Amino acid sequence: MRRVYFDHSATTPVDNEVAKVVYEYMTEKFGNPGSIHYFGREANKAVNEGRQQVADLIGANANEIFFTSGGTESDNLALKGVAFANRKKGNHIITTAIEHHAVLHACENLEKQGFTVTYLPVDENAMVSVEDVKNAITDKTILISVMFANNEVGTIQPIKEIGKLAKEKGIYFHTDAVQAVANYPIDVNEYNIDLLSSSGHKFYGPKGIGFLYIRKGVKIESLQQGGSQERKLRAGTENVPGIVGLGKAAQMAKLEMSQRIAHVQGLRDRLIKGIQATITDIKLNGHPEVRLPGNVNFSFLYIEGESLLLNLDMKGIAGSSGSACTSGSLDPSHVLLAMGMTHETAHGSLRLSLGKGNTEADVDYCLEVLPKIVSTLRSMSPLSANSKLAPSNPCNECHQH
Amino acid sequence: MYSEKVMDHFANPRNVGEIENANGVGEVGNAKCGDIMRIYLDVHDNIIRDIKFKTFGCGAAIATSSMVTELVMGKTLEEALKISNDAVAEALDGLPPAKMHCSNLAADALHEAIKDYIQHKGK
């Protein structure tokens, strides 16, 4: 069966060139970078190179890059590390309602430890207002954390403006850039970013490796103790194959970025226009222009996301949804709800995230299959433009559902 | 994560649609929770002569709707009332734990439809 992978926001395939160096540093060049002998020195050199390659991708210095296990760890280290180290200065953190759970749940954890957190709302396009950030600042604010681009609807936030504001106010600025790094040009100095989280497997690197950029001079505490790796901030033997792979992926991303963006954006626009031309009663979620080059997110009214995904999968197309059923909870995506979407519209959302390996033929195949699936599911649905729920429906009173 | 039977009923749902002159209609769920099931009955001489469904929901919601129509087609109302949500799930070789509560409502919809039939009978 024809297989089309449209879920690059979930993960990407490891590039062959990346896999090659990862294998090399698992087998032949297996040394511990902390060892003094040849094997150790060889591994240590590779780690340093990887650090430089990553730094080059975001305009940082190599000594400002700290390797972690991925986006979640980077977010936790940034938020908790900065909060704990700056406790004397204040206990207030500003973030947004549409962050990844790695940020939201780390913030909830900090609230239990005496910190107060402001969760800023977003508009219907999932955009945060710089004015809201400004108004939320108090003399106790120590950190602002706003994601670079949203993972579900792709909206790119006004990072430059928020960075400028944070700098003026002397407040640290962290951005979860897991979806944006390598898919969008980022320069930490141009954007006044103090801390930035990233994950390798979102840009053709391996899983289990990521990094936190920490601007020189930022006060941060380590969360795990042990050896002196990562300048004592993150103890534990370096994931050398991961670091080498991440470095290679970063190097390739920097080289190919403009071609990749042009390619993926072209496919994205073809897919968006095609869906809009062939299917009625839909809503494009996220900002119409200021969005990730590979992100397509639609709500299809009157149908539910999981059944849409299953049908697409039966036709070989891999996507994802913000419906409750795919999140394992009874509520649909917090991002879609924060955008003011109704539950029913949120349940019918479909995210198709494109990557560098996709082709026009992939998009056209999807455009051939998707309208039929939507129409079949709609023919089975009790909902339509003028449907009303029966007044006798016991679930109208039910609080469990 | 779904059994083969669930996927079969999801991919080829039985008895989808509406019955024009249904003498019993039942609905459960709401769009807020992501599942709505509506069951249409054609009952004659205490026997379910025809049953159809319309469902908004996930794979489990569609499969359980389809399965319940198969289980009670041609059955008496008493027999149909004995079918529980758990029995529907069992007939599908089980559902993932997360789905047992939120999407396993097809028997409830059936029972609502039978209740509706009984209430309107003779009116």
Described by the principal axes of the CA atoms, the overall outline of chain B is: globular
What number of structural domains do the residues of chain B give?
A: 1
* Helix percentage of chain B: 40-55%
CATH architecture of chain B: Alpha-Beta Complex
Task: Please report which band the strand proportion of chain B falls in: under 5%, 5-15%, 15-25%, 25-35%, 35-45% or over 45%.
Answer: 15-25%
> Largest sheet of chain B, if any?
3 strands, antiparallel
Question: What structural keywords apply?
Answer:
heterodimer, A: 401 residues, alpha/beta, Aspartate Aminotransferase, domain 1, Aspartate Aminotransferase, domain 2, 12 helices, 40% helix, globular, B: 123 residues, alpha+beta, Sufe protein. Chain: A, 6 helices, 22% strand
Written overview of the protein:
- The complex is a heterodimer of chains A (401) and B (123).
- With 401 residues, chain A is an alpha/beta fold.
- Chain A contains twelve helices and twelve strands.
- In chain A, strand 5 (141-145), helix 6 and strand 6 (172-176) form a beta-alpha-beta unit.
- In chain A, helix 3 (71-85) packs parallel to helix 4 (101-112).
- Chain A is globular.
- By secondary structure, chain B is an alpha+beta fold.
- In chain B, strands 1-2-3 form a three-stranded antiparallel beta sheet.
- The mean pLDDT of chain B is 92.
- Chain B has six helices and three strands, in the order αβββααααα.
- Chain B starts with a helix and ends with a helix.
- Classes of the chains: A alpha/beta (401), B alpha+beta (123).
- The A-B interface holds A 302-307, 310, 314, 323-325, 328, 330, 332, 342-344, 347, 379-383, 389-390, 392-396, 398, 400-401 and B 7, 10-11, 13, 16, 25, 27-38, 54-62, 98-99, 101-103, 105, 108, 112, 116.
